[in-house]
Known about the structure:
The structure holds two protein chains of two kinds.
Chain A: E1 23-32, E2 35-45, E3 50-54, H1 61-68, E4 76-81, E5 84-86, H2 91-96, E6 99-102, H3 114-119, H4 131-145, H5 160-173, E7 178-182, H6 190-205, E8 209-213, H7 217-223, E9 226-231, E10 234-240, H8 246-254, E11 277-287, E12 293-303, E13 307-311, H9 318-325, E14 333-338, E15 341-342, H10 348-353, E16 356-359, H11 363-367, H12 374-378, H13 396-409, H14 426-440, E17 444-448, H15 456-471, E18 475-479, H16 483-489, E19 492-497, E20 500-506, H17 512-519, H18 524-527, E21 534-535
Parallel strand pairs in A: 3-8, 3-9, 6-7, 7-8, 13-18, 13-19, 16-17, 17-18
Antiparallel strand pairs in A: 1-2, 1-4, 4-5, 9-10, 11-12, 11-14, 14-15, 19-20, 20-21
Chain B: E1 2-7, H1 13-37, H2 42-53, H3 57-82, H4 90-107, H5 112-141, H6 145-165, E2 188-190, E3 193-194, H7 196-213, H8 215-225, H9 227-232, H10 237-264, H11 275-286, H12 293-312, H13 318-337, E4 340-345, H14 352-358
Helix pairs in contact in B: 1-13, 2-12, 3-7, 3-10, 3-11, 3-12, 4-5, 4-6, 4-10, 4-11, 5-6, 5-10, 7-8, 8-10, 11-12, 12-13
Membrane topology (chain A): Peripheral membrane protein
InterPro entries (chain A): AAA+_ATPase, ABC_carbohydrate_import_ATPase, ABC_transporter-like_ATP-bd, ABC_transporter-like_CS, P-loop_NTPase
Subcellular location (chain A): Cell membrane
Amino acid sequence: MTDLLHARNDGPPPIPPGTPPILQLQGICKYFPGVIANQDVSLDIAPGEIHALLGENGAGKSTLMNVVTGIYQPDGGEIILDGYGQVFAAPQDAIRAGIGMVHQHFKLVPAFTVAENIHLGWRDTPFLASSKVLETRTRALSERFGFSVRPDAIVADLSAGEQQRVEILRVLARQARLLILDEPTAVLTPAETRDLFRALRAFRAQGNAVILISHKLDEVIDISDRISILRAGRNVGTYRTADCTAAGLATTMVGREIVRRDLRARAPGATPIAPTPVLSLRGATCRDPRGVETLRDVTLDLHGGEILGIAGVAGNGQRELTQVLTGMMPLSAGEILLDGTPAPLADPAAFARAGIGHIPEDRLRSGLAPALDITDNMALREYDRPPIGRHGLYDHTAANHLAQTIVEAAEVRVPDLATPIRNLSGGNQQRLVARREIRIASRVLVAAYPSRGLDIGAIATVLRYLTELRDQGVAVVLVSEDLEELLNVADRIGVLFHGRLMATIDAATADMETIGLLMGGRSAHNGAPHGGSTQDGGQA
Amino acid sequence: MAGTLQRQPTVTPARRLAWRAGAVVTALAITTLFLALSGRDPRLLADLVVRSTVGSRFGLEDLALFLTPLLLTGAAVTVTGRIGVWNIGAEGQFYAGAIGATAVGLFLPGPAWLVLPLMAASGIACGMGWILVPALARAYAGVNEIITTLLLNFVAGLLTTYLAVGPWHDRVTGALASTGRLPVRIPEIWGVVHWGFPIALVIVLALAWLTTRTRWGYQITIGGANEQAARYAGIPVRARILGVMLLSGGLAALAGVFEVAGTVHRLQGGLANNFGYFGIVVAVLARGSCLNVLPAALLMAFILNAGIVLQTQQLTGSTVLAITGLVLFMIAIADELAHYQPVTVRPATVGPITVGKEARP
């Protein structure tokens, strides 16, 4: 049985030759309708190793881990544990086999205590489970595995790092020998990260294994023994960490065939880039309800007639940036300037009136009222101005007119304007939202992942909308996880990492490696010596 | 070819109405069946109900008196429903309105033209005050309004009883049942039907216009359909929730004002007569449309009126609750079934007829 208290030597333990891998994946395939999530993925996880899994969003990491933990059944391939083939019909089977996963978004009950969360749904929980018994057991577990937790604390009151310790302890208590961590450091402070890594090394020293999903190249190089890189659902290679460099990993991770189509060329007669910025951020900082900084000290200028691309792995502050730029989220520090004067904080209506349009990230949840008809949804931005809104009234006929105009501009065929908008396809919804926002975007358009979930034709249409708007002299912010799209359309590309704008670089001369390094948290200068194309991205 | 049922995402109003009419007829048929089984003559009872509700002047007057509070409490619950909030406390706000009106009526002597508007204003203010705390808690702290508004009903009901038999009890007769008769009354326009009835009708029509034809109404529709989208569009959702809940409290309170000043003329325990709760039934039937409150309240008033008639025939008072429940149950089923339409599925035609012409060597 593992006993981590007595094991503090950090390196991988000596493993006798001929020991089978803890987990062996052979040719795993997983398909979803129209999508190949995993194709022929083979992977070995040896006892006593920390194995990092790298890949862009949508590269298939989560799907693969869901297959390993029994949430999905593979459509092909084999899972071999300790040399024996296994079929996980349900997540419980994987847990029983010693595979434990800590998800990026914790699956704890916030209103319960730490001890209750640890014992929830665990077959070893004693029949008479008084809080005293549970807390004593939790304290014992905490000491045995070296993760300090407060057994009687309510989970909702804990910091992200403490919650993560509870999650890991929960998994370890169920005798996991293979621990899977999805982006474990995304929510941690540097000190908490060091603690976590120390505990992971101790876990490894017992002959256990860890799969670490991360985007942070430095961390991966720091802690892992081997690295596998997934791209478009396939394993493109497994490397010994000692042989890897951050630059090499970045290129392998994002370096697919990029078709560069230059959509930066202006149409004749297009408005040139305005010399003075229309919208600026100065040291903009946001905190989430837990007090974690989600946007850190971002300074940038938006000029009319240009497209600023925002790259980065999802969850690094993109949502906060778009909400700040459209007046939906207040700043906790710094300021936002509209034409050089401070803009009203957190007043999206005022931003809309000032000519700032917003194609939101999740159109059904935040940009549309799915149950209402097309007319009501299309009026969302102009209901308070003539011809629809006059003297406090809502002119239904005028709203129908507007909806008809938008529907025609978007080239969407709808049976009837009274159709609930949820009955339209995602692509048509997106086109309608885009046209609606373009109408009010006389100065700025903030488009968050406008091509997400669309087919190639619809993507081309939406991108054409953006370049047309740019040619009319509007400042466009394009947030995207598709580097190809950013490189083709944007004039400048800013890279967000951990809420910080790492750099803003010229898209015409940008190379994938620099962007990849920036997305992984490496500053361009020390990561890529030839990063001459980088400008100072407003980092004071 | 095979026939099958398919669920349609939308239902035309005519189709829904037809299904609902069928539901009401079914509910009445089941009621008739049970009355017959319990040894009564359904034809006799039906004849009696029709004659004493819509078939006679007295019946119509009673119907209007039932309809007046139901229109207002039904509208009160419907307007909050439009922004996604359930005001279960119309009963309590009804009492608060009656208390506020009685206080002015009993203790402020003056001509009726002056006292009646003051009674209405005082009653509405009391009703708004009664919902103020739940409204603030819902809008700014996210406290579930269903619980808070519901619990305040019992407080308001008991407070009314306390006032009616305690400090405000009738000093003339000395009977500990109600306050003294109010010195002013809402003038009648037709038999016992007072001005409260046309005013309630106008209010419901005004609300129907307000909720569908004004900017305020649009903001509430969006806020109720998707709060996140409303915030995205810069709609002050919290202020709208607060405003709509206060309006709702005021409407229910006005029903209480009319009841005490126009129909009962005294404050007494049990005055609200479940009108607040029946308002919820009306709102459920109205499906969020203030215009639909008119027919929904009419149906409810008819059932209540019929219940009184049935009680004169030695049927228990619970009969009316049973019929109401049955009607609601049937309508809920009908609303769901209205989505289903038979479709004919043709097997995919495989053949060279269409493909062949296009095909080229």
